[in-house]
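thread from #wetlab-drylab

HS: before we spend reagent money on co-crystallization trials with flavin mononucleotide, can we at least see a predicted complex? here's what I'd submit
DV: go for it
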Amino acid sequence: MKEIMIHDIIKNRYSTRAFSEKTIGKERILSLFEAARWSPSSRNEQPWRFIAATKEDQATFNKIAGILNPTNLMWASKAPLLILTIAKLNINSTDQINRHAYHDLGLAIANLTFQASSFDLYVHQIGGFDQQKAREKFKIPANYDPVTVLAVGYKGNLELLPENLRIRELSERKRKDLSDIVFSEKFGKTTNLIDNKKLELIINENNYTQSR
Ligand SMILES: Cc1cc2nc3c(=O)[nH]c(=O)nc-3n(C[C@H](O)[C@H](O)[C@H](O)COP(=O)(O)O)c2cc1C
């Protein structure tokens, strides 16, 4: 069965917990943010903001690590770069709620993530952190919302992970079928673009766990 094509930088991405402590060069780090900066956004509002630290800036790195839930902290603190992502919630010119703020921050993070993939860097997004602590520690204004922390780094040795994390790392990656998410005519109606029988075979072959 012919594979449905996707780009290698998408195919090879996954949320690793096994980070190497190898540092990331400054130019590469800047490329990540430059990729984020060139993302599209509603009204070109660019509602994304980032607080970033490598281990060179130990104080800020520890401050970001200090807002993570304990299970996330266990693996994320090995990553050489942590980034707190923040959405600006109001529109610059009208001060009304920007209902696309989170969407657009997500786009910027996607761009950053795929730029990272192109350098063989891995990005693991984290929602499990204390938002209130983040607000206080980083003096984030009320019209901004801390949304995720990104752990970024090269892939490390899976054998060094505690067993519970290693099992999660190696477990099968699952996704909804295309027929459950792509519709035509009305919500929930599978599009003719998708032949369910063929799709089942293709999806079974494409679980993209090879790179681990
Ligand atoms: C907004 C967001 C929040 C997430 N929060 C966590 C988290 O707190 N801890 C964690 O281990 N993974 C977290 N993840 C990673 C997801 O669990 C992961 O992306 C998902 O299981 C799919 O796996 P994959 O990224 O390897 O394809 C988060 C991902 C996103 C996009």
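DV: The chain has a mean pLDDT of 93.
HS: ok that's useful, forwarding to the group
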